[in-house]
UniProtKB/TrEMBL annotation:
This is Glutathione S-transferase. Keywords: Transferase. Residues 1-71 form the GST N-terminal domain. It comes from the Bacteria. Pfam families: GST_N_2. InterPro entries: Glutathione_S-Trfase_N, Thioredoxin-like_sf. One of its GO terms (molecular function) is transferase activity. The keyword Transferase applies.
């Protein structure tokens, strides 16, 4: 199952919108940024060392960068 890892205040909304429009089934996993530093939490950075968003995963595949995901 496709998992959209959604980091608050990011471009992850694009991927959620795409999945909804194309009726692609997905699970949304939300992460909140640190309120003081605005950085991604450690659990999210485990997916992508830079802590950038969006990220999707499907089994062993983990893919970041909205343009790459949309392709």
């Amino acid at each position: 199952m496709l998992v959209v890892h959604h980091l608050g205040i990011s471009q992850s909304d694009r991927i959620v919108w795409l999945c909804e429009e194309l009726e692609i089934p997905y699970v949304l996993k939300r992460y909140d940024r640190d309120p003081k530093t605005r950085l991604a939490p450690a659990e999210y950075r485990a997916l992508t060392p830079f802590g950038t968003a969006p990220v999707i995963s499907d089994g062993a595949l983990v893919l970041g960068e909205s343009a790459a995901i949309i392709e």
